[in-house]
Amino acid sequence: ERKIASLQSEITSLEAENTELLRKIKNSNVNDAARYRQQYNANKDRITALKSDKSTAESELAQYQKAKQEAIDGENA
């Protein structure tokens, strides 16, 4: 659960940074806009990877919780 929360926190931070980068792109000259766009795209790629990692972690957590519940149910039977 901590890993999932950490991944979500990083995703949220990068998304906020990208919102700011889009604002800067809109209000900057061509050279600066290109630099901001490069950072935006790098962040976007990182967000995609983090979302994939988060999905995997959520799946693993769900499997763990299911196995734990089955073990508890088995002991109570």
General description of the model:
- The protein contains 2 helices and no strands.
- Helix content is 94%, strand content 0%.
- It has helices spanning 2-26, 30-76.
- With 77 residues, it is an all-alpha fold.
- Helix 1 runs antiparallel to helix 2.
- The chain is rod-shaped and about 70 Å long.
- The mean pLDDT is 96.
List the helices and strands and how they pair.
Blueprint: H1 2-26, H2 30-76
Helix pairs in contact: 1-2
Helix % is over 70%
| Overall morphology | rod-shaped
Regions with little confidence, pLDDT below 50 for 5+ residues: none
Counting DSSP H or I runs of 4 or more residues, the number of helices is 2
Distance between the termini: 29 Å
Order of helices and strands: HH
The beta-strand count equals 0
User: Which oligomeric state applies?
Assistant: single chain
Summarize the structure in short.
With 77 residues, the protein is mainly α. It is built from two helices and no strands.
Features:
2 helices, mainly alpha, 77 residues, rod-shaped
